[in-house]
Amino acid sequence: MRPVKLALLGCGTVGSEVVRLLHEQAPDLTARIGAELELAGIAVRRPGRKRGSLPVDESLFTTDALGLIKRDDVDVVVEVVGGVEPARSWLVEALRAGKSVVTANKALLAEDGATLHEAAAEGAADLYYEASVAGAIPLLRPLRESLHGDRVTRVTGIVNGTTNYILSSMDASGAGFDEALEKAGELGYAEADPTADVEGFDAAAKAAILASLAFHTRVTAADVFREGMTAVTAGDMASARRMGCTIKLLCIAERGPDARGRESVGVRVHPAMIPRTHPLAAVQDAFNAVFVEAEAAGQLMFYGQGAGGTPTASAVLGDIVAAARNKLTGTRAPGENAYAHLPIRSIGEVVTRYHISLDVAERPGVLAAVAGVFARHEVSIATVRQSGRAQDAQLIIVTHGAPDANLAATVAELDQLDIVRSIVSVLRVEGGA
Ligand code: NDP
Ligand code: HSE
């Protein structure tokens, strides 16, 4: 049997671990596939860069990614470069030519997955991307295959390791955001520019990919409501603790009726209070977990390492094995099926709950005035607690579920009241807290 030949695009954190695992596990991979895997070439930006003791011949490195993809002997293209271009042009070229593609590129899939899926259909080629969401955790294949007989209603996840590390550390030590971010940087979790993580862009890209698969509807990063976690304070975390909750940066994708009663999909990323009894509250450090709810299956939880070279390479290798097997048997993996075409619900229509802390003047009638604002916007209050007295009086209000637009309008009006000295914090509440 001739070997299955791979073009590896990128040899950084993930790519170098793909190379190492391909080498170390070669005999097992050959036995599982029924043919050897062979690297035809490795495209990088700086071929002369020192890459430790990678078990490959230097002559395999090239800067000509497109030339490598177009080689007749290449069967599978593995892309671990990242970013939208030139990755999109490379992968479209490969797929249209009938070459299987394995990619970890969440940014590209979330911005323009449609172009890749169309090219795969055109070339009757495989497109695998398990590593693009939650690193090592087998999640996309269960959504794409195992749950295809069921109806997924909600996907709630912690899909960014850096921010989960920061929030876990704030919860455990009482540290503020800046201190926790600094520690995350020292430990190598946070990148030099942590914007994509802390502002929720990374989680929003992953949310779009999950929602597309779960609801058979094309969802892009632009459809995802996104709020980062830089405003979460040590005070918010302490308040959450007093309520028996913690704070996590969640991605939430759900189907349900919009304001006009049409079945629709809402996708959002924001920090939220969740009860400590919720399975996602136990997810600590840089781990990821995704909680899937489906009509027949009920609740399912997927947990593991969502980032890092070796865990991510594990998911890439799994896809390479599947693509290679299909090449040998002349079959194709199930492609994207966006038949449902559900409309996207705006954040204003999504029903959420708020936890609001107000710094208020302490005098008779304050509570009635505050309660009146909630009533005017048809928001029902679940609990009210006052902490402190006189100059230090704080009202902490937790609402029942209401359209997010009503909750936001309530907060805007509260901000205008003379008796409200400041709005200390506003956080959404999830999971029955
Ligand atoms: P790195 O930055 O470590 O590596 C990127 C690689 O791409 C490098 O080898 C670089 O070459 C190469 N490269 C960059 N631009 C070009 C170009 N124009 N032509 C050819 N090669 C190029 O990235 P990661 O390994 O961390 O990430 C790769 C992908 O995996 C991304 O899509 C990322 O989102 C995804 N991912 C990463 C995870 C992680 O934990 N790191 C987790 C899950 C997904 P050179 O080495 O010469 O600079
Ligand atoms: N920056 C990402 C994280 C890497 O912290 O989870 C994995 O996509």
UniProtKB/TrEMBL annotation:
The keyword GTP-binding does not apply. GO terms for molecular function: homoserine dehydrogenase activity; metal ion binding; NADP binding. Keywords: Amino-acid biosynthesis, Metal-binding, Methionine biosynthesis, NAD, NADP, Oxidoreductase, Sodium, Threonine biosynthesis. Residues 355-428 form the ACT domain. NADPH binds at K106. GO terms for biological process: methionine biosynthetic process; threonine biosynthetic process. It comes from the Bacteria. It catalyses: L-homoserine + NADP(+) = L-aspartate 4-semialdehyde + NADPH + H(+); L-homoserine + NAD(+) = L-aspartate 4-semialdehyde + NADH + H(+). CDD domains: ACT_HSDH-Hom. InterPro entries: ACT-like_dom_sf (IPR045865), ACT_dom (IPR002912), Asp/hSer_DH_NAD-bd (IPR005106), HDH (IPR016204), HDH_cat (IPR001342), HDH_CS (IPR019811), NAD(P)-bd_dom_sf (IPR036291). Its cofactor is a metal cation. This is Homoserine dehydrogenase.
